[in-house]
Design a protein that fits this description.
This protein has 5 helices and 2 strands, in the order αααααββ. The chain is mostly helical. The N and C termini lie far apart (52 Å).
């Protein structure tokens, strides 16, 4: 009878360990969506100055590079990806909002289909930046605390291990 009680006590612990292992290897759908948006917005911020032939908009290149890097970090679920993703939110709201405020004041804007599409793309950028910020913020506990991990090597009596900062 005692063995049955012990076995019943061990079963939930073993199931919890298996669930934890599965949860550690699982990427939430929200983070996949966020990673996709960061990559898409990075491409947008790189392409816009080229299409508009405005090479003086270097700040858009910076936001584009940071967005692509943030996409990679969020996809890998690295802790630096979390911080970069959260720090990108103000940039990805302010840049389209300031452009929107400038463009809306142009007379005859709403009669040009290309201008309407551009204004719509700015609204889409701001909407997805807000959505991504909320998704990343919601899943912040699933990000890894270690940037990278190297295997521990046993040599005789000594154990050699690399710290995460030496990666």
């Amino acid at each position: 009878m005692r063995r049955i009680r012990e076995m019943s006590k061990q079963t939930p612990k073993q199931e919890a360990k298996e669930e934890t292992a599965d949860a550690a290897s699982f990427r939430p759908v929200g983070l996949s969506i966020s990673s996709f948006f960061y990559a898409l917005s990075g491409i947008y911020y790189f392409a816009f100055p080229i299409v508009a032939q405005d090479t003086g908009a270097w700040h858009l290149y910076v936001i584009g590079a940071a967005s692509l890097l943030g996409s990679f970090g969020v996809f890998r679920m690295a802790r630096w990806g979390l911080w970069l993703g959260l720090l990108l939110f103000p940039l990805q709201i302010v840049a389209p909002a300031s452009t929107l405020l400038t463009v809306v004041s142009y007379p005859g804007l709403w009669q040009q289909p290309i201008a309407i599409a551009f204004v719509a793309s700015l609204f889409v950028l701001m909407f997805f930046a807000s959505l991504t910020f909320l998704l990343v913020l919601d899943k912040r506990r699933t990000f890894n605390y270690v940037i990278c991990s190297l295997p521990t090597v046993r040599l005789g009596e000594r154990i050699l291990s690399h710290s995460p900062l030496s990666c």
